[in-house]
Records
---
Amino acid sequence: MSLFDLVGNTPLVRLSRVIGQLSSGVEVWAKLEGANPGGSVKDRAASHILRDRIARGIPAGARLLDSSSGNTGIAYGMLCAELGLPLTLVLPANANRERKRLLRAYGVELVLTDPLDGSDGAIRHAQALCAAEPDRWLYLDQYSNAANPRAHELGTAEEIWQQTQGRVTHWVAGLGTTGTFVGTTRGLRKHRPDLVSVAVQPDGPFHGLEGLKHLPSAIRPAIYDEAAASRHLWAPTEPALELRQRLGREEGLLVGPSSGAALWGALEVARELESGVVVTLFPDGGERYVSEDHLWD
Amino acid sequence: MNVTILIPTALRSFVGGQSSVLVHAVTAGAALDELVSAHPALAQHLRTPEGKLRSFVNVYKGDEDIRHLQKEATPLVAGDILTIVPSIAGGAR
């Protein structure tokens, strides 16, 4: 069995205490992506992107390259180590200690970019590296690679459909590369064309919801599909981080900041319903953020 | 004291597109106050309604997080550089 075979088939759990008072016909469920072998939802995109790249051939001597704020890099790092492929990752220099150590543990070469420029600065730097030496790099480009949303269309969406016995009515997820949201929406709409699909973004360009993008002020990923969202919600940082903390204390679920935003969005939707099955996704676990004091004090 | 504050890309639209702003202040908190006073739209991004620095906003004096110095009372000398970094990708530089 390969690590690739262990990606996906994550648990779907029903939330109880943290959801507060909802109509009796409303259920809120969350997909726990921290259960993937690399510890995040990004294992799904990385495994599909790498499989697709391998199927099309990797020229001898080329190094794989991408930018990431962390989780995709760790997923690539794990899988490339298994495959014996060389990987260079561009990430903002203020990525936390856990991320840098995990990446180095997998043997990834790191290129650090100006923290002031955020994840968009890392994207631009990766693009510049490729432009300067196109024969040296194989740019995986998670933001433009169709294999990213396809991983969710074929995997995440089918799992949710099976795990809810076809009862899911609302899908709520955060936007980062947008692959999870767009792909899962596509997959679920094959089964349920009337699915309500709700995209959650930070409420401004400067926020504390790591992993999420405020699209109006960021580089728009090429894989983003305008038609996917039935509705957009704008998550405020502090209430989302408070929900993240409550997930640990009230549900026993230790998760990362973007999971707090996903739950915030799911509850905004659930509170308006008389009946429905609301499914969201928690992209990673909380262990990966232990060094970030503000999340725990 | 003349102090330079480096502005992250995500906040530059609130300071007329500048990547840095020169202020005159003797503490980190006073420097931020002067920045916000000159560019009021920044206030809601940097401080809570109660006036505290938002939890995910890190301010560095040189390479040191002011939370590990004397917080907003951290003294400044002429030529110091403050950097505002969101902890969006972590707090360790």
---
Amino acid sequence: MTLIEFAELLYDSELGTSLRESIYAYPIVEGIHLIGLAFSVGLLFFVDLRLLGLFLPNISVSALLHPLRPLILGSFAVTMVTGILLFVASASKIILLDVFFYKLIFIVLAGVNALWFELKWGKHVDHWEFEKLLPKSVQYAGGISLFLWSLVLISGRLIPYLNYK
Amino acid sequence: MSVLELFKDIQTSELSRFVGGQNHLFGAIFQLIHIVGLILILSPVTLVSLRLAGLSGLREQSLVDIAQSTAKFIWVGLGLLVFSGIFIFIPAATNYYPNFAFWAKFLFLAIALIVHVTLYKKLTSIESPHLLAARFTAGLVMFLWLAVAFSARFIGFV
């Protein structure tokens, strides 16, 4: 089965059809996708700015990261689930868009960046977090995360525009 | 002049016709700026609300510091929203007139801004406000801003 055939299968599925045809379901799912973004990318935004030293430099990184981490991860899951639903609802159209694949690539790269940060720096956060100016690669990780998630938002927002063409 | 007439005048203005005559990606740019603006408001409001509600871990941090260092994001975000919103609105002003989600959005926005400059501003200027009042404010501002975002999302669907 090709990717396009798979997308058509999703599109024609009961779930895909009912999401697309319901007056309320689609915008509600989209609204939840947006709220999920505010909590995941929105809160991550401040962690990234902290890593760059641009936000609350007097607060330690873990003091910000620890309480926010479960919220960021939890709402990221919400964003992903609603994102999958939005995809299913118009799969056979979205699968044809380059921008959709760019978005996926940016998400994967952002994920790799976050994983690398967690494994390399997250474990011994107490060694470096109290320095006013954080290690260069920690700052890079924050900057890259900020950049990649912005690209995810931009490419995501472009999907309906290129879709309705 | 009625509001509908005003909207008609706006839509037939030269600027409006210029914006409306552009490629649809031109409109997408304003939509992008619009969503960046929204994220710039929702993120700090979320962070400060979590602090106000007394999220464990965040509670040890200074409320005043967090609120002050995020305030500029909110105003920049609002500026971007107004700027891009005007360009989204004017080419199709009369389409928005009968749209109930459009009016709901501005009602929620007005209330959110009033609460922001009164209750929110007052409570975030003191280090340890009454917990109940703080939680009420946190819940209220989150509800209002999410209602703005949600009703805005509905504009395109009703």
